[in-house]
């Protein structure tokens, strides 16, 4: 049995007096696509940030590919930054740099590769996310919302991570753009064997791309189950989420009865 990609145990998070997570437990297997859902402010993005050490929990354990990350020094954390690529909400690209320059940054910072090799790798990553070669010379302000997300994914993939985190990948996109981004997520898993963890509110994404969904509620992970099993759970927030009008319409679109 391969090591889990991510194993979170007894994780607690607090900002000042505000308790966000209390004994959160969750395991994600390699090559799984798992979404994290929950109401606003339940700490979905915080979990992603904690896994890559941008935020510190007050207690608990986070193992990435079998290795505890919470005690890693800055130098040891280099390993983690290679294994984990992150697409932040809204892309977080540097607006004064072109797409190609943005994608090149991790390669310049973390490798000794020549300029020519970096340029070749950048072109490959740009193609991998379905952007045309001409996108490389454009600035973020010249791109559509969907292209910005793809460029941010290309940058997240620069160092060939095994795990990709996507924070609200389809937010702000029109339905066609969102659907094609969902396709890209599935293709990346198939092509690269990635483990993908997505924070999303997008019901279509949940139906189309996830293997399992982790539900954050009451400061804990309520369940990590395939969507069909979540529909059966008797919990107020889940019922509202999946059995409200939007939830029912989306379910019907994906699984008409
Ligand atoms: N560094 C921080 N310092 C203080 N409070 C923080 C910090 N980071 C997050 N928070 C707070 O913790 C809570 C959880 O934030 P987080 O962004 O993880 O929620 P979320 O579930 O992703 O929410 P949303 O769906 O609205 O994006 C929020 O109340 C947020 O304001």
From TrEMBL:
Pfam families: ABC_tran
Keyword Disulfide bond set for record: no
InterPro entries on file: AAA+_ATPase, ABC_transporter-like_ATP-bd, ABC_transporter-like_CS, P-loop_NTPase
Keyword Cell cycle: no
Assigned keywords, A-Z: ATP-binding, Nucleotide-binding, Transport
Coiled coil: none
Domain ABC transporter: 6-243
Gene3D superfamilies: P-loop containing nucleotide triphosphate hydrolases
Gene Ontology MF annotations: ATP binding; ATP hydrolysis activity
Protein name, entry field: ATP-binding cassette domain-containing protein
Native source species: Beggiatoa leptomitoformis
């Amino acid at each position: 049995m391969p090591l889990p990609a991510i194993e979170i145990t007894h994780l607690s998070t607090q900002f000042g007096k505000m308790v966000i997570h209390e004994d959160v437990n969750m395991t994600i297997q390699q090559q799984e696509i798992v979404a994290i859902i929950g109401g606003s402010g339940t700490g979905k993005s915080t979990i992603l940030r904690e896994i890559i050490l941008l935020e510190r929990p007050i207690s608990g354990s986070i193992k990435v590919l079998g290795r505890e990350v919470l005690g890693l020094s800055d130098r040891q954390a280099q390993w983690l930054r290679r294994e984990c690529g992150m697409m932040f909400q809204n892309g977080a690209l540097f607006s004064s740099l072109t797409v190609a320059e943005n994608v090149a940054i991790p390669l310049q910072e973390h490798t000794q590769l020549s300029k020519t090799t970096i340029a070749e790798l950048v072109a490959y990553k740009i193609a991998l996310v379905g952007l045309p070669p001409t996108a490389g010379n454009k600035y973020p302000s010249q791109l559509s919302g969907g292209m910005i997300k793809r460029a941010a994914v290309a940058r997240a993939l620069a160092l060939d991570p095994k795990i990709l985190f996507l924070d609200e990948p389809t937010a702000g996109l029109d339905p066609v753009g969102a659907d094609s981004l969902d396709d890209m997520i599935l293709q990346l898993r198939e092509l690269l064997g990635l483990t993908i963890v997505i924070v999303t509110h997008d019901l279509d994404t949940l139906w189309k791309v996830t293997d399992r969904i982790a539900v954050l509620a009451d400061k804990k992970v309520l369940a990590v189950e395939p969507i069909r099993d979540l529909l059966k759970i008797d919990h107020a927030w889940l019922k509202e989420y999946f059995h409200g009008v939007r939830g029912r319409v989306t379910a019907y679109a994906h699984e008409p009865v």
